[in-house]
Design goal:
The structure is a single chain. By secondary structure, this protein is of the alpha/beta class. 25% of the residues lie in helices and 34% in strands. The strands form three sheets. A seven-stranded mixed beta sheet has the order 2-1-3-4-13-12-11. β5 and β6 form a beta hairpin.
Amino acid sequence: MKLVIIDYGAGNIKSIQFAFKRLGIDTVLSNNIDEIKGADKVIFPGVGEASSAMKMLQESGLDKVIPTLKQPVLGICLGMQLMCNSSEEGNTKGLGIFNVAIKKFSNAVKVPQMGWNVIYNLKSDLFTGVKEKEFMYLVHSFYAENCEEAIATTDYEFEYASALQKDNFYGTQFHPEKSGLAGEQILKNFLEL
């Protein structure tokens, strides 16, 4: 299986590579459009700030390519957020794959949300073998509003969409690669989609 991690300068790539290595899968790190299009599965990672990450995608033409991909694509953290319509972070226009806006948590809670929280209302093959209220690892100041494309929910200040799906596109706000055995199960499920 050819698994490509999109390399656009806004990634926490090492932990994702190690997580797939534990599952016996070697990953290819690439920003080459043909290589990404030719992959069996694509990971769209992201750590950092939305507007600068989007700028890097635009400079490489990946902003045009990602929404056209036909194979399963998994956006993680900022990767998922960039797949949405817009983000309040840097007033950023997103890729528009998921029909939802990214908002900032208020100062009523500690921002960023950092650490373990539960996911529930699980609604996708991505969560086969994962229990309701399983703990996942999160680090984020911005969130996707609850919406029709939500396939998992988390409560922090209020309920928000901690995972999204539309067609072949999946997104997790949490980091499956840092979420122990349950996170590993999600990555395994992604490989089997």
